[in-house]
Design brief:
Layout (H helix, E strand, L loop, with lengths): L15 H22 L18 H25 L7 H24 L26 E4 L3 H4 L4 E4 L5 E3 L4 E7 L7 E9 L2 E10 L11 E2 L4 E4 L10 E8 L2 E3 L1 H8 L2
Helix pairs in contact: 1-2
The structure holds zinc ion.
Amino acid sequence: MTTSTAVTTRPATRAPKRAAKQVRSLFALTLVGGLVAAAAMPAFAGVLQKDEAMTLQQMAVDDAQSVVVASDAVGAELTRESYSATTSDEIAKKKAAEAAAERARLSAQTATTTSYNIDLNMVAPGSGAVRWPLTSYTLTDTYGTRGGAHRGIDLVAPAGTPIYAAAAGVVKVSSEAYYDYGVAITIDHVINGQVVNTLYAHQSYGCRKVVAGQTVQVGQVIGCVGSTGRSTANHLHFEVYMNGGNVDPLAWLNANAG
Ligand SMILES: [Zn+2]
């Protein structure tokens, strides 16, 4: 699969139909990754730019490969089982039953969202009008990398880590499937008289705490870290948009957060 050309662009330029397809593809990859391919996955895929994104055809191939690998993995698992049945007919029946159970387990995995117990009364530390969206993280990718196309910063933290609103404002987008961003939230702010929009991408499914149109306070818990959308590791992809374009979120936070 395509991995290293990961990039972020504003979603307005993207075709919505691709997002759903990629989400399905990622579901399959996630399942496979858990079974056999985890070591082969890169630390990050991030978000693909439209121009560099794989074609639908390529994604279909990826999907097909995922299915093949997944069924291989199930087969391998079954051969490791010990069977009490003796006749070939009984063994076949038992294998079929176990295969069905495995399929049910896998589909349940995709349908279930992990629930994280987050205290909504938590507030990001500090007293400033701007705060860090995470309190503890490892910065793994900065603004302007990937040929200048990475429009945010990547902050690695465990799945379920609370994400805080970087400033007071009004939620513009709160979605479980926001293009390549996966589960994402954007917030409109007015900071020092200037309109600023922040974006919090790749969050966990089922963990958003705010809806579009909702007013939030600075430091308010809005969701939690995950690896949804075009991502292969738990992290927050954070963007800051102002004056008609992205700015370096790290510089912006360093200058304003407190
Ligand atoms: Zn990123």
